[in-house]
Amino acid sequence: MKKILIIGAGFLQAYVIKKARELGYFTLAVDADENAIGFQYADKYAVINIVDEETCLEYARKEQIDGVLTAATDYGVLTASYIAQQMGLPGLKYDIAKKIKNKYETRKCLFENHVDDTEQAFLVDCNTNLTELSTHISYPVMVKPCDGSGSRGASKVECMKDFVKACELAMNSSISHRAEIESFIDGKEYGAESLVIDGNIHVLAVMQKWMTDPPYYAELGHAIPTDLTPEMEKRVKLCVKNAIQALGINSGSVNMDLLITTEDKIHIVDIGARMGGNLIGSHIVPIGTGIDYMAAMIQNAVGDKVEMNVKASNAVVTRLLAFHKGVIKRVPSNINTFDGVQVIHHMHVGDSVNEYHTNLDGCGYVLATGSNVDNLIHKVVLVCDQVEKTVLGD
């Protein structure tokens, strides 16, 4: 029985851990949280901070693993890559992982290789004269941490007077205390999910996305199929492939966010070298495309033959349970099938709820499948509102 190590064991990583066990692999997991929900599904686990590369490597060597991966978080990417490289396992090259973790280096690479239509980009750190730089910026711009996750610390800046404060927010949300500034693009956001197997790029899905309003930019939901024309979706997939090639991504999952303007210009706004979060790998891609994404990702990580068989697909729409600030007052036992729509949550009576500003503020998801994506979109929005009134009260 081959052994696979999952870096991270939170709510979204738990789906990957369960899938690996279902596929017959001996499944190990690490996470800094001793109460991480994914631990209950693993064959074996250890309480280790997932950004501690050396301690995670020591554990991987001790357990003699055959494969390693992370999913749904950027914080485990470097560790998974480091372990794979040090142990000679399948995985993303460590120098490439470091490049992708740095949003500015990624943007610079895309610009130099003419991958998309984005033009303006700057890097700032504690040594940057932000006041001086603010006079050279063409507004509006997006300011975001160089190595963040889940939209934390990202904000839109409309004018010079707000620039310094936004940069400080982004740098304080960055592990390396650096931020990237790039032109704000007025467009509609889409997601793309890919898997690189033996250097071959498979763009598995293009998804519609919904985001929060300014100044925060956090995901609110996804849908397949998109509202793009077949020609435009083909262009998006080509742009995604070109980006992966330009960055030198040799193996594993790639999660990408793009903006498309009314002039049909394509702008890549974020790239993660791991499976996307918010049910993308566990539900959205399998339902919307018929591809068992997590199974393929796991098989790829241990060097087994990857099964890319496509089964029946359906329209799928998700929406995050993004509430106003409050306290969970009740969670009815039948809430998981609220109005015939699946509600996937981690709510408990007495939990405090933050105003939704980043993905980490979400309380779960509403998921609907069927044949008409527009009807499903309308339905999940209604159910989200009903769930909020039910659990928080009027």
From TrEMBL:
<dbReference type="Pfam" id="PF13535">
    <property type="entry name" value="ATP-grasp_4"/>
</dbReference>
<dbReference type="InterPro" id="IPR052032">
    <property type="entry name" value="ATP-dep_AA_Ligase"/>
</dbReference>
<feature type="domain" description="ATP-grasp">
    <location>
        <begin position="108"/>
        <end position="302"/>
    </location>
</feature>
<keyword id="KW-0067">ATP-binding</keyword>
<keyword id="KW-0547">Nucleotide-binding</keyword>
<dbReference type="InterPro" id="IPR016185">
    <property type="entry name" value="PreATP-grasp_dom_sf"/>
</dbReference>
<dbReference type="InterPro" id="IPR013815">
    <property type="entry name" value="ATP_grasp_subdomain_1"/>
</dbReference>
<protein>
    <submittedName>
        <fullName>ATP-grasp domain-containing protein</fullName>
    </submittedName>
</protein>
<dbReference type="InterPro" id="IPR011761">
    <property type="entry name" value="ATP-grasp"/>
</dbReference>
<keyword id="KW-0436">Ligase</keyword>
